Amino acid sequence: MHSTEAEITSSTSGRRPDRTGRFRWRVVDIVVASVIGVASGVIFWVWGQAYPTLGTPLEAVLPGLQGVVNGGWLFAGVLGGLIVRKPGAALYTELLAAVVSALLVTQWGALTLLSGLVQGLGAEIVFAAFLYANYRVYVALIAGAGAGVACAVNDLIITYPGADAPFVVLYVGSSVVSGVVIAGLLSWLVMKGLARTGALSRFAAGREAGVRV
Fold first, then answer.
1. CA 38 to chain centre
2. N or C end of the chain: smaller count of CB under 10 Å?
């Protein structure tokens, strides 16, 4: 049997679950989400610098396959959502990461901010669909897929308008796979690893690591 975040909080504190208060952001939530966003933004920038080496050859071999590298720009929202577990966390961390990346100067300029907004919403919608109460691995994978779909649709409209059907199918499919593996699974593993170290002791993600369910 799996416990919800509210039940975990109750079992470790001796208080009754607060079904509404758990949605309120604390100072520590803002600080940690901001740290995730800033650190992810630096990684986004580095990933962008590596894109010509990673994505361009794939596009040359099979147009649309370059979507497999998109996961490197999708993980911030999923990781932020998994750790902070508050409404808006996925959107905030992904958008902040995009802002930091843009400030460091990327080849996509201001469009980086639009991508961050759309990708963050893709993950946020999934966490909202589960009522911000379920953070098991399959939810992380779906959130990664959601970010991948959002990323692909945005790119097809902005970067690849008028692309033919084979390109669209391959680009969306490869973006989703990348989102599931990199943004979804990898973020979940990072969250679990941090929880085991005790670094997330002030979050449900950390407390649940010590609760047998």
1. 13
2. N
